Amino acid sequence: MKAITANRLIDGEVVFWKSGQWVDRFGDAQLFDDHHAADVEAAVATGKSQPTVVVDVYPIDLVQSAGRWAPLSYRERIRALGPTNEPTHGKQVEGGDVVEALRHASGAARSTGRVDLIRRK
Description:
Blueprint: E1 2-8, E2 14-18, E3 21-23, H1 37-48, E4 54-65, E5 68-71, H2 74-81, H3 97-104
Antiparallel strand pairs: 1-2, 1-4, 2-3, 4-5
């Protein structure tokens, strides 16, 4: 599965693609099946055609965690949670199942190769 992400120009906030518009929360993002690459390419192209709204539009790979989808890359999980990883700031303040899935997802850190993440108890 994949999702499309970008940074909103007005405030730098991370946003996600959903049916032709940008939404603030990863949990609201439109998910694309890996077998529909043309749909992903079309969504990226549409997002890039809005240069006054967002910058750096690209797809991210997802992994299933606790029955929910979360970004595969640790970096993307941090981006999806908001500007900091402090639970009292950004999108984490709102909490919920999506935030918990993002916090505890295990996957691969692409910048350092494929490694298993250590879960905190």
